[in-house]
Amino acid sequence: METLKVPVGISNRHIHLSQEHIEALFGVGYSLTKMNDLSQPGRYAYEETVTLIGPKGTIPGVRILGSARKASQVELTRTDTHKIGINPPVRDSGNIAGSPGIDIEGPKGLVRLNQGVIIATRHLHMSSEDAWKYSFKDGEYLCAIVPGPRGGILEKIRVRVNPNYTLDLHVDTDEANAYGLVNGQQLDVYSTNDQFQAAR
Amino acid sequence: METLKVPVGISNRHIHLSQEHIEALFGVGYSLTKMNDLSQPGRYAYEETVTLIGPKGTIPGVRILGSARKASQVELTRTDTHKIGINPPVRDSGNIAGSPGIDIEGPKGLVRLNQGVIIATRHLHMSSEDAWKYSFKDGEYLCAIVPGPRGGILEKIRVRVNPNYTLDLHVDTDEANAYGLVNGQQLDVYSTNDQFQAAR
Questions:
Q1: What count of other Cβ atoms lies within 10 Å of the Cβ of residue A18?
Q2: Which one of A79, A149, A195 has the shortest CB-CB distance to B79?
């Protein structure tokens, strides 16, 4: 099997907002200001941030990422959720049913989200061409080998295939800090855990 | 090979102080107040805390752990070190040569540590009896299997053998948060990476 090397992209806590919530937080008719492009085409960071208010604490300066979503979604790390006192599940982006809510504060208003806070499953964005070339399927899990003094094997990496995706392994800051990963670092990924199954 | 199950113990940031530094921070002749025992015999948490002052930020309420050391040592997570602007290496406890320093503030004084800040290597405390029974050697590396949605394999776990040690796998809060570990959780550990070497 040919080995695929993928670059690491580290995601900090962030929020995706619905158009309705953008207007509730920033004012009717407000349009967010694009700050920079992200690794995936059509996705970008906005200049605006919000404050998250949990039962035990607040997190100011939480970056809004776009484009706009049908339902608002907050992606935090476990470190964040301990700090503000909520206990969200590890989930794929978009799968928010039954997840905890949170209060969101913007300059013009407050939104009480009834659900939508998750800790994101680590995932690999991959083009259809790469998926075909390396025999990966959308939705399957990969594992990656992490070298170094905090090394190990990152399992349960969800593959996300789309014709427009750019190869990028998204982990959050907790994972980056624990495994000693830096942005752009190249890791070997494997399609199956065949070589590790004996240990399960 | 018989599998050994070990309980996870999660270490938060903490500091070990020399007697000289205890007195510089808390006053001449000061004696710290024991708060509770830790998992290893003769080790305990004190009621007193200090503030760490780095180039980019401070961390208040850092717990002092005992007993007293010959040289003061600060054990932080990568999340902490990003916050206060220093870049310590991942090291075994006690191996502080060439590590960065930090300013420590107590109620009666300030200590400028020239070196002593590390991110601790994850390690497994083990009694001599267990080491003999399971054929582990002091100083060798183990790996552990982590189940769950943030699962994977924790490699580079340093074994520390002592007649008085109690079995305990020490990871820091970054590792616990990234791998989804909780205190007391039992993990399978393996003496060698034989079954994973094919991937290296």
A1: 17
A2: A79
